[in-house]
C-alpha cells in the first residue's frame, strides 16, 4: 500500500510565470495528521562505492560513483523508507516525487505493479543526485522502471531553468511524460491527467518502450485515431469525482476564472493557459486552499453536506508543502511549508547552499518546539481550534511574512551578484539560517499570543454575579 498517497501538484511554465521562473510544487499528504519531516542539504559524493537498499520493499540498486549535492525532505523516522520527496540539486535540477495516481483494472490486468519495484520511498534518492537536466531525470527514472518495474502508479515532476516535465507511471512498466509548455500550467490530483501523446514529437513527449504495442495487443484504446493516456490508462470513478477532480476544478477556477466547469467532470483539461501571469503567491494560494469562498469550504458557511462533499487541497494531513522555483538568474529557491498550509507560511531557502537550519535538519519524533515542524503543527492546531476568532490574525501574519520574503529574496539576489563559488555558497547558507530564525521567532510569537487569547475563550469560565 502506498504510504504517501494523497498529494496535490502544480507546475507553471516560465512564460506563464510572472517572473519567468519555472515552478514545480506539491502538497505531500499522508494518512495521518502528524508525520514529522526533515529538510536539509545532502552533500555531493565522489568515488562512492555504495549499494542502495530500500527500507520499504528491499529494492536494491548499485549507485553511480559520483552524485551532486541536493536539498532533501525525508521522513524524520525512516523505518518505512526515506521518502526524500523533493529537492533541487547543485545543477539546478528540481524534482518532486510523487503524486500518487491509479491505473485502471484493464491495464493493470496485463501489466500489474511489481511489489519489489521502484516505489515513492526510493525515487528521489535514486534519481535527483545523478541528473543534470529535467529531461535526464525522466530518462533515468524510465530506465530504472524498465529494469525493476514500478511498485506503484505515480506522477513525478522534474524541472530545470528551461523545461518542466511531468511523468506518469500507470502500471508495472508503462509510462509517459510530457513537457509542460512554457505558457501553460498543469494541476494534478491523484488521478492520471496526461491526455493525448504525439509519438512523432520526441522533443515534448517521452514514453516507455513498447507502450503502443502493449495497448494495441490488448485492445485497450477506447478512442479512434488518437492515443489519450488518461482514457487508456486512467480511472473515472465516484471516488475520482469527489476526491480528485474537484481539486483540479478549484485550481483552474482560480487561474482561469472566466471558464465555467463542473467540479466532477472527468474531462477537465490537463494543460491550461492561465488568464493572468502566475506569481509564487498564486501557487501558495492554490496549495493553501480549501474551496475558499465556495459552498464546499469545510471551514465555510455552506450546508454540512456541501462542506463534506469534496476533499480539499490543503489538509491537516499535509506533512510537507513545497514550491521549487528555478529563477532566470540561476538563484534557485525552495519554499518550504510545514503544518497545515492554510495556516502557516512558505519559508524561502536558497538551494545553492550547504545547509538549511538545525530547526529543519534535526526533527524530533514527538512534540518539541525547538523544531520547525512542531512549531508550525502547533500553530495550525491552535488557529483551527478557534478558527473564527483567530483566522484574520493568522492571515495578517502570513501576509506580513510574504511581504518580508519578497524583500529578503530581492536583497539577497542583489548582494549575491558579485559573489561566486564557495563565497556565494557560504553567503546563501548564512541567509538560510537567518531566514529560518526570523520565521521561527514570528511563529512562536503568534503562537504565544493566540494561546494567551485562547485561554479567555474557554467554556470553563464563570462570572460571579456581584449581588450574590
From TrEMBL:
The keyword Protease applies. Keywords: Dipeptidase, Hydrolase, Protease. This is Dipeptidase. It comes from the Bacteria. NCBIfam families: C69_fam_dipept. GO terms for biological process: proteolysis. It catalyses: an L-aminoacyl-L-amino acid + H2O = 2 an L-alpha-amino acid. Its EC number is 3.4.-.-. Belongs to the peptidase C69 family. Pfam families: Peptidase_C69. One of its GO terms (molecular function) is cysteine-type exopeptidase activity. It is an enzyme of class 3 (hydrolase). Gene3D superfamilies: Penicillin V Acylase, Chain A. The keyword Acyltransferase does not apply. It comes from Companilactobacillus nodensis DSM 19682 = JCM 14932 = NBRC 107160.
